[in-house]
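Example record

The entry below shows one chain as it appears in the dataset: sequence first, then structure tokens.
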Amino acid sequence: FFMPLSNNNSKLANILYRDPQSLPSTQEHSPIAEISAKDYSENSSTLPHLLLQEISNDWSEPVVIRGIFRKSNAVKMWYKKQYLSKDLIDTTTTTTHTQVYQVDDLIQDNKIRIMDNEIGRSIIAGVEETLVRRDLDLNKIWQGFGTSKYHQFLLSVSRRQQTQQENHPTTTNNTWQNHWRYNFYAQIHGTEKWYFLSPKQSSLLMPTRCNTNNGNLGKKQNDILKSSITTQASDDDEMHDYLPLRYVDLKPGDLLYIPEWQWFSSSSRSRGKKNSLLINLRMNDGIDVWNMM
């Protein structure tokens, strides 16, 4: 994998730098592999993770399972007011509220205390885990998913709302990221567009940029496991045309698998005041393939 460099490492950065505009501007963006929930359940037999392993080319490429959670209570009920707030009413959560990232009243309640540090994350995590286990049938992914038999996972709910400027949709996330352990995402409400870039093409993302979440790379130990960089192009849309990307449009009920260290960028496609709710099934130890065999 490739990690972005800080601006201080200019000599090495110049060696690794690769101008994306040197590529043809007619790059074809192809969709990622997908399988329907019906085909997945019918062909997976008793070892569905082996089917997912095959479709993802031995866990190396992103895959979407369409509609696997479409009939779940999460998809049917989470967008309704008061449904989630009654479970979260006595919890504390970390939230961000900016022009392009807003928390809707689907979850936010005047009795929920808002904090700007990590304390809230640990308190609300247990409540979210209860909600997900109750309202999603995780065994649809494979039998025992999320249990100690295979692996444990942490849960986070992404509450993102798209805004508009001069009738032009803006993204809720204008950085490219790659992660370790963030392998599965379930789309619950709204729609999102995801783009993917192979780690082999990392130099196209201008690695001289700082980590936008935590400052320069290496300032925190977490930076080794979570990377977020911005592009140097003056216009993201302009750079977008040159990159050899793959993409997927996530709809409610879809499950997305992302390989380790895969670069991705996502944006909400939900219009107006409609939120995009996304669940990240984050695993403590990544995909423990060997223990699943």
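Notes for this example: Residues 10-292 form a domain with the Jelly Rolls fold (CATH 2.60.120). The first helix runs from residue 10 to 16.
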